[in-house]
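Following up on my earlier thread - several people asked me to post the actual chain instead of describing it. Fair enough. Here it is, all 125 residues.
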Amino acid sequence: MSRVKSADTLPEMTVRSALHGLGYRYRLHLKGLPGTPDLVFPSRGKVLYVHGCFWHGHSCRMGQASSKTNVEFWDEKIRTNMARDRRNVAALRRQGWGVAVVWECQLKKRNGDKWLSRIIRFLGI
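Reply from S.P.:
Thanks for posting it. Predicted structure:
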């Protein structure tokens, strides 16, 4: 567990690189906001989370994979992560922030750049 990163992961770096290349500027991991969003666009009032499918219980194949050891611990861990994510998104929306999530599986080459188009629409021009 100590080697699992919460910031600067490969999926996060992929999203950051693509958005920065398109001219979007953002703040990283603002601790004053609920859930410490991965990317914060203060002038747009938007935040973006980049979630790993396994760690946040996504409905895809990777997110539904179960651990082979210590199953009860990992099931509970992922359930609490999902509940925390819901609380954080709700708190951000109550504060007036727009919230979007990019899932790790969406960044795979077979999915193309649909995720990028969706985020550009979310951020607006």
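The mean pLDDT is 90. That should answer part of your original question.
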